[in-house]
Write the structure tokens for this entry.
Amino acid sequence: MKALVVGGAGYIGSVVTRLLLVQGHQVVVLDDCSTGHADSVPPGATLVPRDITGCADVLAGGGFDAVLHFAARSLVGESVVEPSPYWRTNVTGTRALLDAMAEHAVPRLVFSSTAATYGEPETVPITEDSPTRPTNTYGATKLAVDMMITGETVATSLAAVSLRYFNVAGAALGAGERHAVETHLIPNALGAVAGTKDPLTVFGDDWPTPDGTPIRDYVHVLDLARAHVLALTAAVPGEHLICNLGNGDGYSVRQVLSAVEEVTGRPVPHSVGPRRAGDPTRLVASADRARHRLGWTPELTLHDMVADAWHFQTTGSTIR
């Protein structure tokens, strides 16, 4: 299979690119490297250094069997105060991609969506039938893209899968997290241990959970990559399949900090502050549909995520 990975120089896209190569596929990466890294694109993949709006010329080369789409602005807080770049990149950019795919008859699309499309859920674990009420511009733009994709599959024979998930962690196949602005708990906790980041603030320890801290869903980046590759063969012409990806139970903030301390052998510098307004108690995704339609289940644990991220952070290489 010949695949175009849009945003393949980023964290998740680079791991998916590597997994595709391992499985014998031909891969072209399109990425302007504004947030990704050119050296994250592995040997064997061709890098085209341009943004998503320049995808038409690449697809015009022909022979592409699929597009895997990761390119996006994705900082939730920034999206609220600077919405325009999010609508321009995430929505207008994807419209250009869909038009180019239609023009050049690319039959499959796998879209890296987000569980932020659901907003604050009424019930947990979250299923794909849950109401979509995003609470920030980032989630709204991703939902708009999902709606565009649905319209495209109704009007054409495009086979599309959107994968929605919360937190991704770990490292694999020689790639890991290297965000200029890091908002995720695990790399920030590891950075606090290493002394490269400030001590953490835990936002409340009086939540109605077993240990008093909020619970969130985490998926190892290699498990996530497997889901994207499985989606390529699960995609059905004329259908937009939406699947949540998660471990089904989630982990509390204290569980994450305990895993970091176990892996590193050091305490995590942190303090406890007040709750943040608007933070839900528990956000966990149901992966039943992904299990049924993709044949996917997460295989790697929280300990694996932390250990792999720590190894990458300290050595620049990966365990698996």
